[in-house]
């Protein structure tokens, strides 16, 4: 089944807790003549919770977006489940590695129509909307089913972030790339979303995440290893 997600049918997946789910090899991102970061190498293993830290402008967002296939790189390789990123069919890749940031883009309509809409995309046609899973996740967030009928135009920034999390998590990605996802939220909602990510990860030991935040207390709660990006010279 998973083989269908890869462009080249001759490639085989290597899936084991001992193999990195994501491998970054000598990666470099240049903006005009200046490298934001270069010679960046690390691995992300199944089950890991990793913080990406660095000063403002050190390129944390650029890194996470590059890992999601949303930004180019000018050097090095990104390897997901043993296969280089460019051997993947991009829509499939982006449903396995999902990037979430603090200002999600949502469609018009209700919360639930936003959650259902992703299944109309060809890449998710083999999956179906699972309302029970969503209700379970909402329960964890101390929200009831009426939340699903709220119009997007009438929800708060924090609630929009909740919708973005639910929309991503229901697709069962292998890797989440969380780019300051709770920066504009109150402490209670932030902790609920942290709990939600933990539940998502505990559902499958192969799942892993990278999380950027300027809040060291949050990072110490939800990650156990750090990748540090150096400031530009
Ligand atoms: N699309 C772009 N075009 C030009 N420069 C960009 C672009 N995106 C980011 N940059 C620049 O690249 C550098 C790294 O940006 P990035 O947003 O990745 O940093 P960051 O570490 O995530 O910062 P912060 O902690 O403030 O969110 C910054 O100097 C930024 O201005």
From TrEMBL:
Residue ranges of domain ABC transporter in the record: 22-233
The name this protein goes by in its record: ABC.X2.A, putative ABC transport system ATP-binding protein
A single MF term (Gene Ontology): ATP binding
Lineage of the organism: Bacteria, Bacillati, Cyanobacteriota, Cyanophyceae, Nostocales
Domain of life: Bacteria
InterPro entries according to UniProt: AAA+_ATPase, ABC_transporter-like_ATP-bd, P-loop_NTPase
UniProt keywords, alphabetically: ATP-binding, Nucleotide-binding
Residues spanning the membrane: none
